[in-house]
Amino acid sequence: METAVPTVTGPVAPDRLGRTLMHEHVFVLNAELERNDPSSFDAAARIPDAVAKLTELREAGFATIVDLTVFGLGRDVARVAEVAAGAGINVVAATGWYTFTDLPNWVAFRGPGTMQGGDDPLETHFVRDIEHGIGETGIRAGVLKCATDKPGVTPGVERVLRAVAAAHRRTGVPISTHADAATRRGLEQQKIFAEEGVDLSRVVIGHSGDSTDLDYLRALADQGSTLGMDRFGLESLGGFTDRVETVARMCELGYADRMVLSHDASCFSHNFDPDFKARRLPDWRYTHIPQDVLPALRERGVTDAQLTAMLVDTPRRILAGRPS
Predict the structure, then answer these.
(1) Which tens digit of pLDDT belongs to each residue from 285-294?
(2) What pTM, to 2 d.p., does this model score?
(3) Which residues are CB-contacts of 155 (< 8 A; sequence separation ≥ 6)?
(4) Element spanning 246, H or E
(5) N or C: which end of the chain has fewer CB within 10 A?
(6) Under CATH, domain 14-320 is a member of which superfamily?
């Protein structure tokens, strides 16, 4: 059964999601840096710039992005709502925690087995963001986010994974991950999610497109999860030709309905100097897929039906469905 999808500007009927980019960001910020150095984020300039960039994406035929900016990445959904309204595009907000290793002390000192004990504040925050809204905005999260990178499943990372799984069980909201493909971290994520009773068909294993290892990708998909082929334009972690070829090969093997496409791009990030991005990563932008990737995939033999599966049908199934 499908349900309305929460976005930063209100619920959206599933048939209005249209073409969807499943792993993007609007602003990636360091809140402490901004508070102590306000010049590091000029909202008066950056918000109109973001509106222009997302308007360009909408005019290229896309209706929705999933913004996977959560705790640890400077999430500010009020700003994102202003951008989404200005651009006339749907933005699905996320809840979760982004860490490769440890958790901050205000979390690490609370919860089962910690110094202070009590309920796990991670699960509490995630469920509240989904059911009641983020902060005082009333904007409800529509997806859960977690990360496992090269350090592996550290105690802090494992705690996030299991809290995300618990929130998924309670709310039915899907899970989207950051997973280091070179170290096959997606398999570790799936193992923990399965232990926790997660419906793996409601999980997107992010950054799968960083790998050309078809055995790894098929193993993830054969367990039911969707592959995030979601870093088009980030050429330092995988070239354009390899990314296109991997998607095409997986389509040939029958996995078109187990992949989604995206960039993992942002309008502005404290992590990247804008001049550096423009000079070294010119294709790391929202319109790279409609302008460059889709023509290349078609030339490689990917059909329009397969593209629709990756851009429309599978995102809709994940965002609007409920666990079986």
Answers:
(1) 999 999 999 9
(2) 0.96
(3) none
(4) helix 240-252
(5) N
(6) Metal-dependent hydrolases (3.20.20.140)
